[in-house]
Amino acid sequence: MLHNGRMVRPTQTLPERPLLESSPPAPWQHEAPVALTHNVRRLTAPNPGFMTGPGTNTYLVGEAATGYVVIDPGPADDAHVRRIWQACAHVDHTGGNIVAIVCTHSHADHAPGAWLLQTLCVQQPPVLGLPSAPTARPAHVFTPNRTLQNQERITLISRGPEADLAQCHTLRALYTPGHAANHVCLLLEEDSILFSGDHILNGSTTVIDPPDGHMTDYLDSLDLLAQTAQAHAVAFILPAHGYVLGGTPEAAQEVIAQLKAHRLRREAKIAAVVAANLHGTVEEWLPLAYDDVDPRAWPVAKRSLLAHLERIERQAPLPPKA
Fold first, then answer.
1. 173 is in which domain, residue-wise?
2. Nearest-angstrom CA–CA distance, 298 and 23
């Protein structure tokens, strides 16, 4: 295979099931990276919780010969950041072999660790991503060293043992606003792996929190990911929280299709609740529209309810209240 005019060693063929996820998957741990493929490892931050599940997944893409791209270094947790640094080792086993740090978005469980990690490295890698929009909450304000452009490629390449061969790992940025205005997903082109950030999760649906979150943008971005997955035969979706999704191209497509169908079913339910209770309030609509959800989650669900209401209003304005 040619890449920028150079011969590139073909990448390892992925099995039908992720290398890292046995069936059932192993229990979560936070001390050491888990190998998913020959060039992707997952290191989960020790920040489990209601909103983060087992914790934020940091992905390390690359090999010692090429250097690494770190995706979502997580919260400002010194121990987690130190483990990332150690895992991204040079061929002599010293840490900090990092070419770039990419934040899929600016939320506090994804981006703050970037600056701690950068300062650990002798040759400080750039922090890449999209700057936060004016709609972001104060805790989520983020300005990268450089703005990733839509469809931009980050390429790791190194000479292989044979003079005419090289190791190559190419990440392509995909603008996917919706969960956050500055959300980005990444496609590992040689291996057809999609890093979905918080846009697609395992174990829960992501919260759309307006005004920085936007439901129509979210659904449009899902369509983009579906098109990308189909065009590149993506079999594995690696979320920022939870285990690997998919396993085959058909399974990955089904994950995205089911997620969109779930969102549209919820929206239809909300629209029906509102139509039957036109003079109600958000607080009154919430338990009716989310009666299948644990009431402890209603304060969070309320944010997505507001995002759905905004979309419903744009499509068919509600009659004014008396």
1. 10-260
2. 32
